Amino acid sequence: MNTRTTSPVSPADLAPDRVRATLQLRVGGAWFPVCDRSALIAGRGVAALLPDGRQVALFMDRAGRTYAIDNRDPYSGAQVLSRGLTGTQDGRAFVASPLLKQRFDLESGRCLDDESVTVTVYASRIES
Fold it and tell me: SS3 of 92, please?
């Protein structure tokens, strides 16, 4: 199931002078376009499918910084982290799993409730 978010395309969007900002992830040493920047809403997650079949959870904070981590909750095995609640602790952004509520640092992938558990983090950027 492809969970990549897309926006409807209007004729104005196809104009050569219209530049769209795209979220890209660093995957396998190369930058991979994932979704249009407009698909990201501060404080909400979006799930996307990578070329190798893995799912990634994408987030943007109110300052416009983007984050990308594995969507798989290591405690339950479910692909649900993109549906988690976001917050901050000591100035660090995190997402809490919607199932068992463990919190994962969005920059390091470290579980804030059990430091022996981590999720993969992907470098992300917005390109025009």
Answer: strand
Q: What is the pTM of this model?
A: 0.82
SS3 77: coil
CB atoms near residue 41 (< 10 Å): 10
**What pLDDT score does 20 carry?**
81
Return all residues near 17 (Cβ < 8 A) that are at least 6 apart.
none
Q: Give CA–CA dist 116/86, Å, rounded.
A: 21
| Ordered strands of the 22-27 beta sheet | 30-36, 22-27, 124-127
CA–CA dist 63, 83 (Å, integer):
20
